[in-house]
Amino acid sequence: MIIVTGANGKLGRAVVERLLKRLPAERIGVSVRDPNQAHELRERGVRVRRGDFDDAESLRHAFEGASQVLIVSSGIMGEADIPHGIRQHQTAIDSAKRAGVRRVLYTSHMGSSPASPFAPMIHHAATEQRLEASGIAFTSLRNGYYAASALMLIDGAIKTGELIAPEDGPVAWTAHFDLAEAAAAILSEQKLDGITPNLTGPEAIDMEGIATIASEVLGRTIRRIVVSDEEFRDLMRSRGVPEASINMRMGMFLASRRGDFAQVDPALAHLIGRPPKGFREVLKESIS
Ligand SMILES: NC(=O)c1ccc[n+]([C@@H]2O[C@H](COP(=O)([O-])OP(=O)(O)OC[C@H]3O[C@@H](n4cnc5c(N)ncnc54)[C@H](OP(=O)(O)O)[C@@H]3O)[C@@H](O)[C@H]2O)c1
């Protein structure tokens, strides 16, 4: 049985949907914090059990009989939360090992690095170290940066016509749908062991490019305005954004400046057997 955690979230649920197209429902299980939210999967024959990374006993039950477990990284990613996030993933890895799984998959990130200025990347790198130390076979999915995150970055700009951000760098924006398809292919076809190549969208685009594409798609001008890091921080503070969130956003821009999200790799296209969606397509879908 293949167990997917985070299956009430966007990526986990999309992976389950793609798995259901490939495998009988009785070979799929989900580990979710709130089983009630997954009742529709249960009705379709998927095994639904409660599993919380903060509760090892719940994972023992949720991972029972699993041959593979896909650990969808928890959302705890701020700098101050890294130790808690690492503990959660360690608990999930240990629970999978105790359940006797053949392989663990983990949703890492293309920018995973212990030296990243962007806190989530440190969390991913630490989890990958723990997977390597666990002695179990694992696949760490180096997922591209979610195109959905770019949609969030331009949300305000769509209203104001101004995309205000500090200096940035190109990002290989990647669709949830394609990453889910790839994870389902890797799970069901037993592909790719260890750290995968970066699983990315078809092109790397910076904020200037995002503004240009958004202007074309929306039919009105969105201007990219570059501000200094301090001006950006002050602007965020004036809007009441908490300091931890400001640090997270700045971290993303600093990492993109270093080129940490710039590499475009053909691996995702090979896995899903077609060109992955680009940012333009994801934006069009989001407004249709
Ligand atoms: N590649 C990227 O660019 C990128 C960008 C942002 C985030 N991420 C990572 O990718 C993950 C999946 O993305 P997504 O879009 O599917 O996010 P999402 O919709 O927020 O889903 C996150 C899932 O993690 C689960 N989770 C949180 N804490 C947990 C815990 N203690 N135990 C078990 N499960 C827990 C949540 O469970 P509930 O449904 O019960 O809340 C939720 O289902 C995120 O959590 C984040 O780590 C990647």
UniProtKB/TrEMBL annotation:
Gene3D superfamilies: NAD(P)-binding Rossmann-like Domain (3.40.50.720), UDP-galactose 4-epimerase, domain 1 (3.90.25.10). It holds the Pfam family NAD_binding_10. It comes from the Bacteria. Residues 6-146 form the NAD(P)-binding domain. InterPro entries: NAD(P)-bd_dom, NAD(P)-bd_dom_sf, NmrA-type_oxidoreductase. PANTHER family: NMRA-LIKE DOMAIN-CONTAINING PROTEIN, QUINONE OXIDOREDUCTASE 2. This is SDR family oxidoreductase. It comes from Cohnella xylanilytica.
